[in-house]
Write a structure and sequence with these properties.
By secondary structure, this protein is an alpha/beta fold. It has a single domain (4-93), classed as Rhodanese-like domain (Oxidized Rhodanese, domain 1), CATH 3.40.250.10. It has helices at 11-18, 28-33, 44-48, 68-79, and strands spanning 4-7, 21-24, 39-41, 60-63, 84-88. It has a 5-stranded parallel β-sheet with strand order 1-5-4-2-3, sandwiched between helices.
Length: 103
């Protein structure tokens, strides 16, 4: 039930180095407006309801707006047996490129 914390500035490099899945734990509406490229949307409420269908063989890197929700998600996913890396700072402090999604 432990996980690593990284600065969100390192999210893409860390994802590539670990063959990880980037997981945005915000609401679908916020994800649609702006998200980090290559990320998938898995809202915190679904994680808390154990509605997670991601491979446990892959590391998950989680982020949110400011870092609080991703910390909760990292804790829960770790308890579920996932290898998790949490991003400190959230997308509000992310300065890299972003994209819009589809609801």
């Amino acid at each position: 039930m432990t996980f690593e914390n990284i600065n969100i500035r390192n999210i893409l490099t860390t994802a590539m180095n670990n063959n990880a899945i980037i997981v945005d734990v915000r609401t679908p509406e916020r994800f649609y407006k702006k998200h980090i490229p290559m990320s998938v949307n898995l809202p915190l409420e679904k994680i808390n309801a154990n509605q997670v269908n991601l491979p446990k063989s892959r590391t998950l890197i989680v982020y949110c707006d400011t870092g609080g929700s991703s910390m909760q998600a990292a804790r829960k996913l770790s308890e579920m047996g996932y290898t998790v890396i949490n991003c400190i700072g959230g997308i509000r402090t992310y300065t890299g490129s972003t994209t819009k999604g589809i609801l």
